[in-house]
Structures are given as C-alpha cells and as structure tokens.
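Q: I'm building a small set of examples for a reading group on sequence design. Run inverse folding on the following structure and report the sequence directly after it, with nothing in between.
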C-alpha cells in the first residue's frame, strides 16, 4: 500500500457488463454472479468455505441519480464437497440497488484495503461509467465477461485532483498528506471558515511548489486547486469534529433536525466553495495574461455569466463588434447543468464552459458542439476523454490564446 496512491484505498477490482439473466431477478431468481478467474482475483479462494463480505452497494443512473445501500455478499464454492471440481459463486441479497440494475449496465466489484467491498452499478453510457473505467484502468467489455485490475506497485495510480474527484463521487474520504504542515498553516483560522476569496489567496500564497501562470496556466490552475482542496478538507475536518463532539441535543432530546441541517450545510458548503474556488484561481491567471474581463456581469433577463470578456459595458454597447465578445461559464462538475450556460449572453453565439469533470460522455460533448458550446478543461484532465473528444477539447492555454486573439488590436 502506497500513501497517496490508489492502492491505499483498493486492493483489486473486477468489472463486467451485466447480462439479462443477472438483472431480471424476478425471472431467474439467480441473485448470484459466477466466480470467474477474474472474480477469484478479487475475492480469493482459500478453503472454499463461505466468506461474508460487508458491502456497500451503489447505483448510478442518470447524471444526477445515485442510491446507496449497505449490506453484504457471500462468496462460496458451491461444489465444496466435490473431490475434483470447484464452482465459486458470489451471492447477493435483494436490495434497492440490485433491483435497479438493467442488462447492459456496468458492474464494478472493488475490494477495499479493509476487506470490505464496493459493488457499483452504473447505467450504460453515463459519465460515471466512463470515469470508473478510467479510474480502474479497465476497458469496457463488449461481452459479459469480467476484467480484472490489481493495484500492485507498477500499476498504481497517484491520487491527484482527477482521481480525488471520482473517489468523492463514491463517498470515499481521502486522507490528506502532510497533515502536520496543513494544521500549522491553518492555525490562524481557528474553527471558522474564511471567505472563499481569502482562502483561495491563502492557498496560492502558501503553495510549496513553484508554478508559472504565464508559461504553464493549466498546471498552475490544477496545483492551486489541489492545494486549496487539501487545506479546506483539513480545516473542515477540525470544524466538523468539534461540532460533532458537542452533540445534537435540544431540550434533552436528540436533535435529528439539527443534525440533518448541519449535514446539509457541510455538503452545500463543499459544492459552493468548489465552484467559487475555480473562479478565484482563474482570475489571477487571466490578469497575468493581461486579459480584459468582468466577473459576474449582468446580461439579458438578469443572467450573470461567470466571466464576460472584455466587460459588460462593451457587451451592452450595440455597436461593439459581437465577434470580439466572449463568455465563460465555470462549473466544477457538469452533469446535465451545462445547458444552463446556453441561455446566458445572447449576443455571443459561440460560448465556452470551463469544468473539472473527467470523462464526460461523447453523446454529451456532441450535444455541446451542436449547441456551439466549447468545453474547456485543464490539460491533465484530457486524458480521461476519448481520442475523438481530445481533438476538439480546449485546454486553458487554448482558451487564453483565443481570448488574446479576439482582444488584440
């Protein structure tokens, strides 16, 4: 197990495309997966006696749908007493996740380092399906056989921003490296969150590695984002822990509503801060490249694109050349919310959207192209996309070049 690598969280994973007999439980009553050699690579064989694994079942349907159910699976040799043959099977009980599985969906069975399992089902053709195949370095199976990935040293994957993004979707809490240094840096904030702008600036000023926003804008943006994320999660851990220690009691009764309200506030803060963080770090990069822009300007119908180029005054000037106008939407994750950008800034026909979402499906990016929306991603995240998509994607450096071109003269 390597600190800061995927092997810190996973031992191995097997994946397959689900068949009709595995998903139509009312017809087959099977409730089992056959123990292929790849599945044995994840679950082992041992003596053949029944082994029960604590399991978290996760179903991802459309771009914003997800259901979690905790339970167990049983791994056993159905021919244990046969003198020469063995036939392993993986039994799963009925639950809400398995009842939603359909033929053609992707199944991932991942063994954690604590010997629990994640059993993940993703609907076919979704971004999450793409992301998990990329994360686990598994090609999509055209047949119904399992494929296997074991996280040994030569195949290990570093937990960078992109990997963290996907693990966060799975509800896996990442252990921050250099916790002592982070704690020392965060002492000045005590147990209160600073403003997002202040925190982003703090992250940039305390990053320990050298970056150059002019020569390497993509690398710089990712370094700032990743370091701020580490700082935020560490500060959040201290603040949340303190609140939990106080307990949730109101008039000597358990305050369930108070707990739910606090939990939601934690989730909402994470989401809103992530989006603002991306904008906060983009701003100094634009300034370093002498790009004229305005953040949060008003256009038609009270819309507020995240960035307008060069500014709202020229945007609302009817004689200003519309071809010299540009807009940029900023969304850390797209899901299906990218369409919101299309209704902003009517004068600008070709719009741009900056996101950190890995592995968006080709059907989604094709729809973006059809609607004249150019997707912009930091260069490192391009590796999660297909070759056909890569030829169309912009990185941050491409977008800056485009802005310089339309603002020249």
């Amino acid at each position: 197990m390597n600190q800061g690598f995927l092997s810190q969280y996973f031992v191995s994973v097997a994946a397959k495309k689900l068949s009709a007999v595995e998903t139509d439980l009312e017809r087959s009553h099977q409730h089992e997966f056959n123990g292929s050699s790849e599945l044995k690579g994840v679950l082992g064989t041992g003596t053949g006696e029944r082994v029960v694994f604590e399991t978290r079942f996760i179903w991802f349907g459309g771009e914003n749908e997800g259901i979690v159910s905790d339970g167990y699976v049983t791994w056993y040799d159905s021919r244990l007493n046969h003198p020469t043959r063995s036939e392993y099977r993986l039994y799963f009980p009925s639950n809400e996740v398995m009842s939603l599985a359909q033929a053609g969906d992707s199944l991932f069975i991942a063994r954690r380092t604590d010997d629990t399992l994640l059993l993940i089902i993703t609907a076919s053709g979704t971004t999450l399906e793409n992301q998990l195949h990329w994360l686990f370095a598994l090609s999509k199976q055209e047949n119904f056989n399992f494929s296997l990935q074991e996280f040994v040293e030569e195949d290990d994957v570093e937990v960078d921003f992109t990997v963290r993004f996907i693990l966060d979707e799975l509800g896996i809490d990442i252990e921050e490296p250099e916790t002592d240094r982070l704690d020392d840096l965060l002492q000045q904030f005590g147990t209160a969150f600073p403003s997002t702008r202040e925190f982003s600036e703090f992250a940039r000023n305390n990053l320990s590695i050298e970056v150059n926003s002019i020569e390497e804008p993509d690398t710089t943006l990712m370094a700032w984002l990743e370091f701020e994320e580490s700082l935020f999660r560490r500060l959040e851990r201290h603040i949340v822990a303190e609140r939990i220690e106080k307990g949730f009691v109101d008039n000597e009764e358990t305050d369930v509503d108070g707990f739910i309200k606090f939990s939601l506030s934690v989730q909402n803060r994470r989401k809103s801060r992530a989006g603002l963080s991306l904008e906060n770090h983009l701003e100094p990069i634009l300034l370093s490249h002498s790009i004229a822009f305005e953040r949060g300007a008003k256009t038609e119908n009270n819309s507020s694109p995240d960035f307008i180029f060069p500014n709202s005054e020229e945007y609302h000037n009817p004689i200003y050349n519309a071809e010299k106008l540009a807009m940029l939407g900023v969304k850390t994750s797209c899901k299906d919310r990218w369409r919101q950008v299309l209704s902003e800034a009517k004068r600008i026909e070709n719009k741009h959207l900056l996101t950190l979402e890995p592995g968006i499906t080709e059907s989604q990016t094709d729809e973006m192209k059809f609607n004249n929306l150019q997707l912009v991603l930091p260069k490192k995240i391009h590796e999660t996309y297909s070759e056909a998509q890569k030829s169309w994607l912009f990185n941050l450096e491409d977008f800056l070049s485009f802005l310089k071109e339309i603002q020249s003269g």
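The chain has a mean pLDDT of 90.
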